[in-house]
Amino acid sequence: MNPRLARWLVNGALLGCAAVAVLPLLWMLSVSLMPPGTASSLPPPLLPAHPTLGNYRELFSRTGMGRYALNSLLVSGAIAGLALVCNLMAGYAFAKLRFAGRERLFQALIGALVIPAQVAMLPLFLLLKYAGLVNSYAGVIVPGMATIFGIYLVREYARNVPDELLEAARIDGAGEWRIFVQIVLPLLKPVMVTLTVFTFLAAWNDFMWPLIVLTGQEHYTLPLALASLAREHSEDTELMMAGSVVTVLPVLLLFLALQRHYLQGLLLGSVKG
Amino acid sequence: MNRTRTAWLFLTPALLVLGVFFILPVIGALGLSLTDYDLYALADIRNLRFVGLHNYWALLQRPLFWSALGNTFYFVAVGVPLSIGASLGSALLLNSPLARLKSFHRTVLFAPVVTTVVAVAVIWRYLFNTKYGLVNYGLAGLGLDPVDWLGDPHWAMPTIIAFAVWKNFGYNMIIFLAGLQAIPPELYEAARIDGASGWRQFRHITLPMLKPTMLLVMVLTVAGYFQLFAEPYVMTEGGPLQSTVSVLYLMYDDGFKWWNLGVASAVAFTLFGVILAITITMLRLMRRREPA
Predict the structure, then answer these.
(1) Residue-level pLDDT at A272
(2) Which of A98, A184, A225, B37 is most deeply packed, by most CB within 10 A?
(3) Which of B10, B23, B124 sits opposite A97 (nearest CB)?
(4) CA distance linking residue A31 with residue A46, whole number of Å
(5) Residues A83-105: pLDDT tens digits?
(6) What does CATH list as the number for A54-270?
(7) Quick check: ipTM above 0.90?
């Protein structure tokens, strides 16, 4: 094939794919700036004739979106922080501390990955109901405080920490906890960033479990609020798009800022499954 | 020994969380699926009765269960190949030496993956709106009749599949891209010297070298697509005519709308069994075809 034609085809196809990927998101942004009622007309407008922030004002003053955004931030932040601590400790133990049955226990955890999380949700709901945690932030946070994926990720990374370093510190009389905090953690910084971004995004975007455990609106996270808004206000296209922007923009910006770490985690986590 | 105790101390928080909030509930779900746990048992546990395999038996005789299973299989059987095709295609484009602005394109193509399902499903609802949606406007421009995308039982699932492909293809694209970059360039050089065409290079070098990646991607994607829930919840509420009720949607309705937690647990376990059986079958088939 003519190399110039080939170059045109490859780059044209790439641009086409990129357009399909990003146009719905740009359309969302554009419609969110249109005055109420103007998006539903023919021909469908692509850009707002008179851009306005009115939908956002409406969203925060009347539908309580500000509160839901704070709920999302709180819940996702807590999950990311707590899961980071639990997964780091366990991943390090699986990678570097010796104990009987280590490999077998780890294999059992990896095996448990085939169980879909939803299988656990019904009894988990009952468990939390009897514990009085249904319809509370804790009910959303608690099951997410450790993940098999996170433990796997940390273990893969921590295996590169040289044993000699740890042994030398032990000979110098350092306690295990001090070794972990002062020697190991600084070496694990990259995987800490990766894991935090991963867990935060997953928690922010999570839908099914919060939908089950949060029965009252006051604790709703953004996806729940948006889903219930979509059922009440399905005619208000512009308002709904403003709500979508508020939900999507934070995670999109976070991803853009820490893209390299996120993609590394994705690859590290799926090399062996 | 002291070392062992330290290790277990480090493991305790994570194992406690996973044990209490995951492993224990999974075992509990198996037990729950053998009872008639419902609204009355929720009010007073003394109303609970052991019913053996009755929930499973009743499930097999329930038309809605079979249509939910059928809808889910439809979503998986059409959605997974399309999704993997889109991932592989875009990874090949990104990996082409002719491609420009690679990292920009990679970021843009990956962007839908990190977005919130609920939010982008709402966008798609409006894009596919029968009257004012851009998609039908485009069709009209081509002289085609408008389609009631989410209101027609024949079109609702295809629309959800298109949405899922758009939302998810970037994930596997990144995995394929890493697989493509790991193929030694010498293989292609040798093929070029032998005069192999681009297509033959793809057939006889790229695809065989990508096989482990492909297996991984297939297993992950099939398991993920069987867990269809948020898309129909937001876009169609299971309708029209229950054409987009998935197995998990049924579980959610049974469990948390009608509070039949025993029945819903049986639904959940059946889904688990289906996913497990298909994963094992895929692994076996792929292994067998491997040349010794």
Answers:
(1) 47
(2) B37
(3) B10
(4) 8
(5) 999 999 999 999 999 899 999 99
(6) 1.10.3720.10
(7) yes
Q: Provide the residue ranges of all domains of chain A, joining segments of one domain with +.
A: 54-270
Domain ranges in chain B are 1-25, 64-289
Q: Which tens digit of pLDDT belongs to each residue from A215-225?
A: 989 999 999 99
Determine whether the interchain pair B234/A6 forms a contact, defined as Cβ–Cβ distance below 8 Å: no
Amino acid at B116: T
Q: Is the CB of B93 inside 8 Å of chain A's CB atoms?
A: yes
Phi and psi of B50, rounded to 5°? -85, 130
> Rounded to two decimals, what is the model's pTM?
0.94
Task: Say whether B227 and A205 touch across the interface (CB within 8 A).
Answer: no
C-beta of residue A80 within 8 angstroms of C-beta of residue A262: no
Q: What is the CATH number of domain B64-289?
A: 1.10.3720.10
Angle between helices B24-32 and A121-130 (to 10 degrees): 100
B50 by DSSP, 3-state: which?
strand
The dihedral built from the CA positions of residue A192, A197, A200 and A205, taken in this order, carries a sign that is negative
Q: CA nearest A4 in B: which residue?
A: B98
Mutate to test the interface with A, among B4, B26, B87, B115 (most CBs of A within 10 A): B115
Tokens 């948020």 identify what position? Answer: B230
Q: Could you tell me which of B168, B166, B146, B161 has the C-alpha nearest to residue B243? A: B161
Q: In chain A, which ranges are continuous DSSP H helix? A: 3-32, 54-62, 65-96, 102-112, 121-130, 137-141, 148-158, 163-171, 176-178, 185-187, 189-205, 208-213, 222-232, 237-257, 259-270
* For residue A134, pLDDT beyond 80: yes
pLDDT block averages, 10 residues each, chain B of length 292: 85 96 96 93 88 95 96 98 97 93 94 96 92 91 91 95 97 95 91 87 92 92 96 92 96 95 96 96 81 48
Q: Which of residues 21-40 of A touch B (CB under 8 A)?
A: 21-22, 24-25, 27-28, 31, 39-40
Between chains, do B98 and A86 touch, taking CB under 8 Å as contact? no
Q: Which residues of B touch A94 (CB under 8 A)?
A: 11
